[in-house]
């Protein structure tokens, strides 16, 4: 295990997030001696590739108002192609260009991410409640932290993304923010930094000046802010805090030095509240 507790950084898949800026800053942090695990999403690349292949994106809104990607069999293929063929190699190559040895891993590699497959998904569509059963997604239940620590101990930066490995031995999609939270808890991270296409958690989704310095998330129940994909980020933040990660930050991934700025205070710090939402 590295002498210092690692940082876990999640590079959002939002098209506005600057992967070059993220990689440059993560690489500089790593070269300075701080172990980092980089977790990534890829929503923009998944949507673009799906459109080219004739697999339209479909999103489901749960009863609590949180929106997620519906992953049917065809979408799972697109997810794997986009993440393993486009997003992860791009990040690994960029880190190498900045002088850092990096290795890209899906959750299937080495059994890195274990997940429980969802049997069905309850959602609202066209004003009515539906149960969607063609589901190829799951929730991460285990992380091979030893593999990540071994790579860090060898001076290699792990770049991690979905899919995960379900109980039946087949891959399932998993939300990348929640993957990052599970990884942060498993490796004993000093902090989880979620880099996104906004300066933090916005009190008003239409006003970036409304970014909050601190956002309290209830210990259970729906989070207070759900627009623009923030709901799942706050759920992930809650899971990381509950797993013992002492600091969770939501910060702007569109600027230069995004990790450095976030750790210096240019971020929304997430805290656990006492209510249930």
Automatic annotation (TrEMBL):
Pfam family, one: AA_kinase
Pathway field: Amino-acid biosynthesis
Gene Ontology molecular functions: kinase activity
Domain of life from the UniProt record: Bacteria
Keyword Kinase: yes
Residue ranges of domain Aspartate/glutamate/uridylate kinase in the record: 7-252
Alphabetical list of InterPro entries matching this protein: AceGlu_kinase-like_sf (IPR036393), AcgluKinase_fam (IPR004662), Asp/Glu/Uridylate_kinase (IPR001048), Glu/AcGlu_kinase (IPR001057)
Keyword annotations of the record: Amino-acid biosynthesis, ATP-binding, Kinase, Nucleotide-binding, Transferase
Amino-acid biosynthesis is among the record's keywords: yes
PANTHER family: [LYSW]-AMINOADIPATE KINASE, N-ACETYLGLUTAMATE SYNTHASE
Protein name per UniProt: [LysW]-aminoadipate kinase
UniProt organism field: Actinomadura parmotrematis
């Amino acid at each position: 295990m590295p002498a210092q507790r690692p940082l876990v950084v999640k590079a959002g898949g939002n098209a506005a997030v600057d992967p070059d800026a993220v990689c440059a800053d993560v690489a500089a942090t790593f070269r300075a001696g701080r172990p980092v695990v980089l977790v990534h999403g890829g929503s923009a690349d998944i949507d673009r590739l799906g459109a080219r292949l004739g697999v339209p994106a479909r999103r489901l809104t749960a009863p609590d108002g949180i929106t997620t990607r519906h992953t049917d069999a065809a979408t799972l293929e697109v997810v794997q192609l986009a993440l393993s063929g486009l997003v992860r190699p791009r990040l690994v190559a960029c880190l190498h260009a900045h002088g850092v040895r990096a290795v890209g891993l899906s959750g299937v590699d080495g059994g890195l991410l274990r997940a429980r497959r969802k049997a069905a998904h309850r959602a609202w569509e066209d004003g009515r409640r539906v149960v969607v059963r063609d589901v190829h997604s799951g929730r991460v239940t285990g992380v091979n932290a030893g593999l990540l620590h071994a790579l860090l101990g060898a001076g290699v930066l792990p770049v991690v993304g979905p899919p995960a490995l379900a109980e039946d031995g087949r891959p399932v999609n998993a939300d990348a923010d929640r993957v990052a939270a599970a990884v942060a808890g498993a490796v004993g991270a000093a902090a989880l930094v979620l880099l996104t296409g906004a300066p933090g958690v916005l009190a008003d989704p239409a006003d970036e000046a409304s970014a909050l310095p601190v956002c309290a998330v209830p210990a259970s129940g729906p989070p207070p802010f759900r627009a623009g994909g923030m709901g799942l980020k706050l759920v992930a933040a809650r899971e990381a805090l509950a797993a013992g990660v002492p600091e969770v930050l939501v910060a702007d991934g569109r600027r230069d030095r995004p990790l450095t700025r976030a750790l210096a205070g240019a971020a929304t710090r997430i805290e656990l509240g006492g209510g249930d939402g």
